[in-house]
Design brief:
It is a single chain. By secondary structure, the chain is of the alpha+beta class. The protein has one domain. It contains eleven helices and seven strands. It has a five-stranded antiparallel β-sheet with strand order 3-7-6-5-4. Strands 1-2 form a two-stranded antiparallel sheet. Helix 5 crosses helix 7 and helix 10 packs antiparallel against helix 11. It is globular.
Length: 302
């Protein structure tokens, strides 16, 4: 069994002839190396046993248009002043981070709350730019002062290498926000069942640790202990799986115009099932290991 390390994770491959891990992770790996993903540590680890095919569970997080219906509490509100911008941002951080740890960490929320009385321009767009830059600097300064390894967030913004969601083929998501992140791993247990794992990842001072994470006992998708965000996502997925078995459903056709990451992902999976050579699959994987809401790519597979 081959095992390689990246980003604080052990990546296992049962194919002795498979290409190197790094070849299959780019450009995803370089983006998150710049974000210093290796400095993150597990704060907590939870798992859900979903009665859903793993590809369906994975595709559910490959587009952003489900948010208004599934997570209406996250819909943005308009503001007319700098103070409106601040309060809207704080609301979003608190709501997104509710029970989710690294998805928006409580440390970063407290830092933002300490800045809420700063003066901002009247123009909302200018106010948002200054607010985000100021908060980035404050987050970096706070974490570095306590001995944590964190990159310059504004430098990453200027370089255009930050995304709200990153996907690494075939089943790994990273959702970075300020200092911390949530991470998803989606593992098939059969055609009708998936283990959906969630990590809260954050940065600790170099002389501190959260300790060795304990593998969780998987919970049901309707378990009341789930925070609002995953509870809302999990409520949709079993119904979608049932729809796949409806009498009137014969097959699923991929769009050639929208849902680009879903199309790219499914076609790479099909390439593996077809036994295509690695020199064809690796470039296709690299075009798929990216962020969400991307165009349909020419993968060179068909």
């Amino acid at each position: 069994v081959r095992c390689e390390l990246w980003g604080g994770c052990a990546w296992i491959n049962l194919d002795d002839d498979a290409p190197a891990l790094r070849d299959c992770q780019e450009p995803f790996a370089s983006v998150y190396d710049a974000w210093k993903v290796e400095a993150l540590r597990t704060e907590w680890w939870q798992a859900c046993l979903l009665p859903v095919n793993w590809k369906l569970a994975t595709a559910a997080f490959m587009e952003g248009y489900h948010v208004p219906q599934t997570h209406p509490q996250l819909l943005p509100s308009s503001g007319r002043s700098g103070q409106d911008v601040i309060q809207t941002s704080l609301y979003f951080m608190r709501t997104l981070g509710a029970g989710m740890g690294g998805m928006t960490h409580e440390n970063d929320i407290r830092i933002a709350e300490g800045l809420q009385n700063i003066e901002l321009p009247a123009d909302p767009a200018a106010a948002m730019a200054i607010w985000r830059s100021t908060l980035n600097d404050a987050v970096v300064s706070w974490h570095r002062a306590r001995g944590s390894d964190i990159p310059d967030l504004n430098d990453l913004d200027r370089r255009g290498i930050t995304d709200a969601i990153g996907f690494c083929f075939p089943h790994y998501f990273l959702l970075p926000t300020y200092s911390s992140a949530s991470s998803y791993r989606i593992r098939p247990l059969g055609p009708e069942e998936t283990l959906f794992e969630i990590w809260s990842l954050t940065r600790f001072p170099s002389d501190r640790s959260a300790g060795k994470p304990t593998p969780p006992e998987p919970m049901a998708p309707d378990d009341p202990r789930w925070p609002p965000i995953p509870a809302q996502d999990f409520s949709n997925l079993p119904r979608q799986q049932k729809g796949l078995h409806a009498r009137g459903f014969e097959y699923m056709r991929l769009s050639n115009q929208i849902e680009g990451l879903i199309s790219n992902f499914e076609r790479v999976v099909d390439g593996f099932l077809a036994g295509l050579p690695h020199d064809m699959l690796v470039p296709a994987i690299q075009k798929t290991s990216t962020t969400i809401d991307v165009p349909v790519a020419d993968l060179g597979l068909l």
